[in-house]
Amino acid sequence: MKNKYQVVPRAALNKKPPKAEISEADFRRRLKNIAEWRKQRLAELRAKNPR
């Protein structure tokens, strides 16, 4: 186990995990779901805290 003062090589920090293969349709559907969730969440927050 490394102690907290050991230097971590920069190359180890820059490695990215492999991207998941998803279809264009799945990507669009997820984007739409996220947009709808954000819109709903904002509406709830505004209803809870009107100015």
Cα distance, first to last residue? 52 Å
Indicate the structural class: mainly alpha
Mean pLDDT across all amino acids: 85
Fraction of residues in helix: 55-70%
Query: Stretches where pLDDT falls below 50 for ≥5 residues?
Result: none
The total count of helices amounts to: 2
Q: What is the number of strand segments? A: 0
Largest sheet: none
Question: How large is the share of residues in beta strands?
Answer: under 5%
Secondary-structure element order, N to C: HH
Task: Evaluate the radius of gyration.
Answer: 20 Å
Globular, elongated, flat, extended or rod-shaped: what is the shape? flat
What would the keywords be for this entry?
51 residues; mainly alpha
Describe the model.
The chain has helices spanning 10-14, 24-48. It starts with 9 loop residues before the first helix and ends with a helix. 0% of the residues are buried. By secondary structure, it is mostly helical. It is flat, with a radius of gyration of 20 Å. The model has no long low-confidence stretch (mean pLDDT 85). It has a domain at 22-51. Helix content is 59%, strand content 0%. It contains two helices and no strands. The longest helix has 25 residues, at 24-48.
Quick structural gist:
This protein has helices spanning 10-14, 24-48. The chain is mainly alpha-helical.
Secondary-structure map:
Blueprint: H1 10-14, H2 24-48
